[in-house]
């Protein structure tokens, strides 16, 4: 049986038809359905809570919106991160923000956390490349099930948090497992271990 290729849509069509839905992303014009499980949502909520506490403690001009889309200009791609930390002082430069929760500039984003699910290849490869090009300072890949490829999380595979820190135009990656304390350039005093995240489900 021959399968027809997926119908591609434009970025504007995606925003018009799916912009309000948390269930879809757009990658190179292809509609990608996101199907998070309950545990996936628990991990996302736990991370958001921990980072919000740190934002409050340090009285930083950051916030974590409940819903946000990252529009990659000049492409047919729009990502919907699980946790995104925005710098409210930079939002004045965002052309769409006053009408819709859409970010187009990496300078508005302090950090992103992606909780890995079945489409882990996008989290470990595609998004690493695109977020680095966009200039996002820090990108966390939270693989609480340890399902990423061995080239990303090592062998034997186990639950891993990968923190990608932007150096020039590429990410330097550091892996955290078990009781390793996470090292974040955005939240340098954060007291959080990988294991604490994994046991939040």
Report how far apart the termini are: 41 Å
- The total beta strand count reads 11
Biggest sheet overview? 6 strands, mixed
What is the CA-atom radius of gyration, in angstroms? 17 Å
Percentage of β-strand residues = 25-35%
Summarize the helix and strand pattern as letters. Answer: HEEHEEEEEEHEHEEH
Give the % helix.
25-40%
As laid out across the biggest beta sheet, the strand order is: 3-6-8-9-10-11
Q: Low-confidence spans: pLDDT under 50, at least 5 residues?
A: none
Specify the overall morphology. Answer: globular
The mean pLDDT is 93
Number of helices, where a helix is a run of at least 4 consecutive DSSP H or I residues:
5
Structural class call reads: alpha+beta
